[in-house]
Write a structure and sequence with these properties.
The chain is of the alpha+beta class. Helix content is 35%, strand content 20%. It is built from 24 helices and 22 strands. Helix 12 (427-434) packs across helix 13 (447-455) and helix 16 (499-505) packs across helix 17. The relative contact order is 0.06.
């Protein structure tokens, strides 16, 4: 098939599959098939960029990062709603409207706990998206909104100009996955989906937002040139026909019906894909809305009923400590089972030692508990009047409850971590780090294989990778010995990696890939680094006091010594091959952009560093040279704007020689 025709066919097919999956929640294509077709489209568009559609599904992964968000003045203000906090207040609001017109119909819908945005379309094309801000002026977050699959990039049969309002949120499943990633990477957890959604939508790099799994419900037409609606439902049907993901809603007439629906939404909130914090009640008829008008702050035709947070007492029966994949010790309260926000709660997060100390939480205490953000059970306070005699203040252990290694406090004091190099709780993550691309670069040791090896007891330390045999691993693949032999070859080849990679692979706190290279160049071998004093370490450029203490302490742990000795016996290289050829690039910063044909990014970076220079991922006033390959894009444009020297690959090669 002609490439242009195939690109058009794949684009239409994937857009329809995406609409059914993200908007209708009715997937018709298996994920594997979708991913396979998306990869085919990516390859075709790379070979024939002139045929790629502006709204291609391949463009939903995030564009270039921005330095700041531009201000946007909303053509139609995004007003907030008056809040009501009791049925009496709600019925008073309804009564005033029904007194003027007893036949008034109302729309009742869940109040999504997210961030309000305006989406603008011109001639059917999505051109801009902005946050609500203060209702009059918001921020341009167009690139981040493009990563939300439920937002159509192009509309068929749309008005020449259309602005719609929606609520961006993070689904509960996306929130759980995000926090699992945060924990695996040793980063702080998000307290609730709304905070996570807010942080994601305001990321300067859209590629980060693209990974967060954001979603949206659209609930209002702000402006539609040449189109008139008589009712709210008519406008929502219009949006639904344009393939927007429209807020669930019901049209009701009486106070009792509305009260029942508000209660029903609350009782069934656990079944929703996202958090809600109330219900919204709006007059259906748009002419009646206009007649009712607005105050300086709120429309008189709508109200938001806010559900009160459910708080209940329970008893702390025990405090247990879990060790996460990054070694963080997390205390958890085991509480007497209590029904809360639709589920039975048996545990509550205690965050860290500071949280426990500030509230003086002890085993045996009666506490008040709620679900923070309707997701995570959290202890609010202790009822001291019910504290049993003889209770003791709780302190986290000084040694890891899993492996017995000493624990240490993070530099910011928030978390306490296990320092054991072979701690079983951290084993999966430690191995994933050890074999990663910038570390020992062992291709084929994916998460599923690693977990399988751990379950079988074949590896209890990253060093054990080098003692695996063909008999140990050939049963892990359907293809048997062939895949196993390939993995063993990759493991054997990794023994010859430069020691800078090994230093990074060890997973020492504060030691990244760059610091690994600096240490390898400074000490020449792992043995010399092991013997270095704190004073000697702090003399190395880019190594501060905290990092020096971390390195020095790590090498003196029994588990570290055991792992190092096992690596030595396996024949892993402990010597540095990173010898500076000369320092011609000293003080110079290079940025590599576009597709390089004469070497990989890693090879080019290595050459720059061995000549005393630095490689950076972004262009700034401090950049010395920008090396451009094919399809260089925005980095080349920015370099020209800043007057930075631009080099072709051939010119860069001349500098190297």
């Amino acid at each position: 098939m002609d490439p242009k025709e195939r690109i058009e066919e794949l684009t239409a097919l994937l857009k329809e599959a995406g609409y059914r999956y993200y908007v209708l929640d009715d997937p018709t294509m298996p994920d594997f098939e979708y991913d396979h077709l998306l990869r085919e489209l990516e390859n075709l568009e790379a070979a024939h960029p002139e045929f790629a559609a502006v709204d291609s599904p391949t463009k939903r992964v995030g564009g270039e990062a921005v330095s700041q968000f531009e201000k946007v003045t909303h053509p139609v203000p995004l007003m907030s709603l008056q809040d009501v906090f009791s049925m009496e207040e709600l019925n008073d609001f309804l009564g005033k409207i029904l007194e003027g017109d007893p036949d008034t119909a109302f729309s009742v819908e869940p109040k999504i706990d997210g961030l309000s945005v305006a989406l603008e379309y011109v001639d059917g094309q999505f051109v801009r998206g902005a946050t609500r801000g203060d209702g009059t002026v918001g921020e341009d977050v167009t690139e981040n909104l493009k990563t939300i699959h439920a937002i159509p990039m192009r509309l068929e049969n749309a008005p020449s100009r259309l602005i719609v309002r929606g609520e961006v949120f993070m689904p509960k499943k996306s929130f759980e996955k995000l926090n699992a990633r945060q924990e695996a990477e040793g980063k702080p957890l998000f307290a609730n989906p709304r905070n996570a959604a807010a942080g994601s939508l305001r990321q300067l790099d859209p590629k980060i937002a693209a990974k967060r799994g954001l979603d949206i419900y659209v609930f209002n037409v702000q402006l539609a040139e040449g189109v008139n609606f008589s009712s709210h439902r008519e406008s929502l049907d219009f949006l639904k026909n344009l393939k927007f993901k429209v807020i669930p809603h019901k049209m009701l007439h009486t106070v009792s019906e509305i009260d029942e629906e508000v209660i029903s939404i609350n009782e069934n909130r656990e079944k929703l894909i996202c958090d809600i914090d109330g219900a919204v009640i709006k007059v259906e008829d748009l002419n009646q809305r206009e007649a009712l008008g607005s105050t300086a702050k709120f429309p008189r035709w709508a109200a938001a009923y806010k559900y009160p947070p459910e708080i209940k007492p329970t008893v702390v029966e025990d405090i247990v400590v879990q060790v996460g994949r990054t070694g963080v010790l997390t205390p958890k309260a085991v509480v007497r089972p209590v029904r809360l926000a639709g589920t039975t709660v048996t545990n509550a997060t205690l965050h860290n030692q500071d949280f426990i100390t500030q509230r003086d939480i002890r085993i045996g205490d009666t506490v008040l508990i709620r679900k923070a953000g309707e997701i995570i059970p959290e202890i609010l306070e202790v009822d001291l009047s019910k504290r049993p005699e003889g209770t003791r203040a709780y302190h986290l252990p000084e040694n890891c409850p899993v492996c017995g290694a000493r624990v240490e406090q993070d530099e910011d004091g928030a978390f306490i971590r296990c320092t054991g190099a072979e701690c079983p709780a951290q084993l999966s993550r430690n191995i994933a780090h050890f074999v990663s691309r910038d570390a020992m670069d062992i291709d084929g040791l994916g998460a599923a294989i690693v977990d399988n090896l751990i379950e079988k007891g074949l590896i209890k330390s990253p060093a054990d990778i080098y003692y695996l045999t063909l008999d140990d691993i050939k049963s892990l693949w359907k293809s048997g010995s062939k895949a196993a032999e390939k993995l063993l070859a990759a493991i054997e080849a990794s023994k010859q990696q430069d020691v800078s990679r090994l230093i990074y692979a060890l997973g020492i706190r504060q030691v990244g890939a760059k610091t690994g290279k600096v240490l390898a160049s400074a000490f020449g071998s792992l043995d010399a680094l092991m013997e270095a004093s704190v004073e000697a370490l702090t003399e190395v450029p880019d190594v501060g006091g905290i990092t020096a203490e971390s390195i020095h302490g790590w090498f003196r742990q029994d588990q570290s010594k055991h792992m190092i000795e096992r690596l030595r016996q396996a024949g892993v290289n402990f010597e540095s091959r990173r010898v500076l050829t000369d320092d011609r690039f000293a003080g110079k910063t290079f940025v590599l952009t576009g597709a390089l044909s004469k070497f990989t990014r890693e090879e080019a970076t290595e050459k720059i560093e061995l000549l005393g220079g630095k490689a950076s991922g972004s262009v700034s006033k401090k950049t010395s040279f920008v090396v451009v390959g094919e399809n260089a894009g925005s980095k080349e444009r920015k370099a020209r704007e800043l007057g930075i020297t631009i080099l072709t690959e051939d010119e860069f090669l001349e500098m190297l020689q």
